[in-house]
Amino acid sequence: LSHHNSPLPASQSTDNVLNHTLPFHNLYSNYQPTNITMCGILGLLLADEDALINQMLFDGLTVLQHRGQDAAGIVTSERGRLHLRKDNGLVKDVFQTHHMIDLRGNVGLGHVRYPTAGSSSCAEAQPLYTNYPHGICVAHNGNLTNAEELAELCRNKLKRHVNTDSDSEVLLNMFADSLIRCESKEEGNDVTVENIFSAVDTVMKSCKGGYAGMYLINGIALVGFRDPNGIRPIVFGSRKSTTKSSNGTALNDYVFASESVAVDTLGFDLVRDLKPSEAIVITMDGKVHTRCCLPPEQIHHAPCIFEYVYFARPDSIMDGISVYESRLKMGEKLAYQIMERYPEHDIDVVIPIPDTSRTSAVQAAYILGRPYREGFIKNRYIARTFIMPGQETRKKSVRLKLNTIKSEFAGRNVLLVDDSVVRGTTATEIIQMARDAGANKVYLTSAAPPIRYPNIYGIDIPTRKELVAYERNEEEIAKILGCDWIVYQRLNDLEESIRESGEIPEQVYESSCFSGKYVTGEDIDSDYFSKLHEKRNDTAKEMRRLESGAAQVGLPPGSNDGCENLSNDKRGRA
């Protein structure tokens, strides 16, 4: 069986391979790709074979925790032996001391995720593993739009078992099968760098959508890759190692990550972003090989614009652009639009809705000539509502998450600045909180344009009917939210905010949630969106949660639900 939770071949003993159990409640389920995305990924290879990478992976994932709070996982390789730990929860909760002790090795992958659709079972937490060939692990961020088709291909033609509802497992099996076929064409048993590039090339030609990720080929190489449109982010970094080669040459340590902030925090130098369709293969001896796997006519760079608006940390650099600088520009352009449309505005104070909008709010206040104030205090121990599943949960969480400083609202006309407005649930509650605190008038502005379309490249933006801006103008939206007026960023202003912060004035961005235009060019028809609605709507998510094995026996999600605290078999230990 080609999955990390599958029973092991008789020829392999459980004291030196992954030791997971197969979750019984998923055994006979039909494949429905869950598109588990908007994740954080991390990969490290240290030149010193005796070095321990566990703490660095833990620290890096903690820095990337904002990209997903549903589950976390780490796999390490210790001289050919793999150690894996993954479960539902935050990084600090998933990895305890005894797990960290077991995660030995000088090379490894890390992953944090939340599910955009489908199950929250920790069987779908990453990294995922298949034992053939060589033992391959994957950590992936993004969404394959043809995952269902590829799953059928894996099952029926390639004869590979797809055990979870994750498109990441499809990505893993497609690569594993391609690598086998590339190796079979050559004499000898050793996998070559050319084999690896050929396998990645096959994956990119087969897989549609937006994705970035890493493969760990046990004992052979660490591979980073990015989709042909460069939609999902991944960066590459290095640092000098204290270890030298046999001829005395200084060696390097290497890192891949979703965002440059992880590279900085771990003490590496940022080299660059991976190019669209590029794969970087780092062999275990520290040699780096790079290649764009597709011809130039099939490569169209269009990074996700929502990374700059919301996902990424402000101290990250993405595709050569400072997220912080781009958000300052967003606030500047918002302010100019407000002055253009409401030249006689009576705004007294500008208040951000924490946290992402702060940077834009500071600049908007400066341009408007109005004071910037912190009117909401955030409880940092509540999960981000955009990530929290269930509309009712979102409603209840807002007032637990934020509290007002009443003196900043009392008797004032307040401009609230948010990064984006999706369903409108959170915005409605916050506007009411401002009124309850004594605000005279409440205006709302969004650093992002109206979100009117679902995203198919790995963002948990709901189906159209759940979007507050769907088939509504600003006046209608303001009435629903309860504010006096709302001003959205214009799409061209948003794009210019990012372009002006970089060096490519003609750069194109993936902005489908605003424009409805999907850059990958495949035929995304109404049937696809109907299926998307069936998987993504809150009722469907709640039903899947209730049907999970953990829920049925009264356990919290993920508790022994296909994930054990893996290292090695401890039955022989005292």
What would the average pLDDT be, to the nearest integer? 85
Give the CA-based shape: globular
Assess the beta-strand content as a share of residues. Answer: 15-25%
Measured between the Cα atoms of the first and last residue, the distance is 31 Å
Strand ordering within the main sheet: 3-2-4-1-10-9-11
- Radius of gyration in whole Å, from Cα? 24 Å
Biggest sheet layout:
7 strands, antiparallel
Structural class given helices, strands, pairing? alpha+beta
Low-confidence parts, pLDDT < 50 over ≥5 residues?
A: 1-37, 555-574
Number of strands: 21
Portion of residues within helices: 25-40%
The number of helices is 18
3D architecture notes:
With 574 residues, the chain is an alpha+beta fold. The protein is 30% helix and 21% strand. The chain contains 18 helices and 21 strands. It has a 7-stranded antiparallel beta sheet with strand order 3-2-4-1-10-9-11. A 6-stranded antiparallel beta sheet has the order 5-6-7-8-12-13, covered by helices on one side. β5 and β6 form a beta hairpin. The chain is globular and about 75 Å long.
Provide a concise account of the structure shown.
This protein is an alpha+beta fold and 574 residues long.
Fill in the keyword field for this structure:
alpha+beta; six-stranded antiparallel beta sheet; single chain; seven-stranded antiparallel beta sheet; disordered N terminus; disordered C terminus; 574 residues
Present the secondary structure layout.
Layout: E1 40-45, H1 54-63, E2 71-78, E3 81-88, H2 91-94, H3 97-102, E4 107-113, E5 128-130, E6 136-144, H4 147-156, H5 167-184, H6 193-206, E7 209-217, E8 221-226, E9 235-244, E10 250-257, H7 260-265, E11 269-273, E12 278-283, E13 288-292, H8 306-311, E14 317-318, E15 321-322, H9 323-341, E16 349-352, H10 358-368, E17 376-378, H11 391-401, E18 402-404, E19 413-418, H12 425-436, E20 441-446, H13 474-481, E21 485-488, H14 491-499, H15 512-515, H16 526-536, H17 538-547, H18 549-552
Parallel strand pairs: 16-19, 19-20, 20-21
Antiparallel strand pairs: 1-4, 1-10, 2-3, 2-4, 5-6, 6-7, 7-8, 8-12, 9-10, 9-11, 12-13, 14-15, 17-18
